[in-house]
Design brief:
Rossmann fold, alpha/beta, binds pyridoxal-5'-phosphate, binds zinc ion, globular, 4-stranded parallel β-sheet, 444 residues, 3 domains
Amino acid sequence: MAKFAMGKMRRKGLASMAVQTVSTASTVDLGPAAGLSCRECGEIFPLGPIFACELCFGPLEVAYDLPTGDPEALRKRIEAGPANIWRYAPLLPVPADVAEKPNLNPGWTKLVQADNLARELGVEPGKLFVKDDSGNPTHSFKDRVVAQALEAARAFGFTTLSCSSTGNLAGAVGAAAARAGFRSCVFIPHDLEQGKVVMAAVYGGELVGIEGNYDDVNRFCSELIGDPLGEGWGFVNVNLRPYYGEGSKTLAYEICEQLGWVIPDQLVIPIASGSQLTKIDKGLQELIKLGLVEDKPYKIFGAQAEGCSPVSAAFKAGHDVVRPQKPNTIAKSLAIGNPADGPYVLDIARRTGGAVEDVNDEQVVEAIKILARTEGIFAETAGGVTVGVTKKLIEAGLIDPSLTTVVLNTGDGLKTLDAVAETSQATATIRPSLDAFRDAGLAN
Ligand SMILES: Cc1ncc(COP(=O)(O)O)c(C=O)c1O
Ligand SMILES: [Zn+2]
């Protein structure tokens, strides 16, 4: 257990909804993780499957004893590491031998220099990049966060992995549980895309459709956690949320390392609960503190679908609080009407000089097709949201086309085929003859 946190740590019983039976914190090995700190009041708690501060109910996040010393040595150590998120193990809440444990080894996805897309959007070639996280084992960035939550679940002695999900997370939990030998039982809104449902079910765990939207699913899971029915379960995005969130920092680390240990000027990140966006900012701040990158200004832009845009609406109205909405959009993976990290997203967008913007469903489909046509990347609807918002923000003059911009594609288009199926069909159907081909008018 790390030095700095011990003195300040309290061991009072936490609010009952936030407590689980666990191995004691002192026996937990989560590498450099030293404790959990409250994002509101700063109180420090021992590592455990807790997510809310007992003093103020603020959300908890992982506090570290980060490596000190020569940044060059740390950079070299990272660069010599495996081509997955575990190259950053010294900066994550995982044991040092994490790479040897059965897991899906996500991460180190491609950062694509998107010159064709740049030309289409009026950006200087060489300045626009797509971080393509559809390349992860279950084809979304969720494998990153689940990998961290899995290590916390192992450390705390859980044997069932669970989550409330808008689709991608359910698949990521199912697959990680299968590989690690855990039982899984995941909860989704009953009306998700077929690709998401099949991807969540195929790994053999339990998949439960809840009659309601994601916010209903999440409420249900919070109740289940406080009930003996859910005892001993690790809900990756509820009681393991502080650890889960840290997985998104690896996106920040990878983007900077892939750019030659440089922070990009502008990042466009999708928002559902807002966790990913806040943790990418945390990751950038850590890199600066560690001396792995030069401190420089960067702008973070959040992207939502118009049919579920509570954070964007609050940003535009100048509010600090987010008013919940009832989602109605094809971007179902981002359809969280009451985003837990919404206020923190607003802070980050304002602090960095960025913005939060939204696009309608038609623009989402258009953007999916632009990305596919220009770069050969088939994004799910969340990627349509980020590319669509990037286009809109360039047109509005908020994204500077002469500066480096990284747009996140966080999921795979094969999971949301319906979004583009109607307008993406065979150009022609012909008899297998040259005459028929000539008649179809497709020869050069
Ligand atoms: C593909 C995809 N991108 C982005 C997100 C946003 O994640 P967060 O809840 O961290 O904002 C999600 C969440 O489910 C997702 O599935
Ligand atoms: Zn607190």
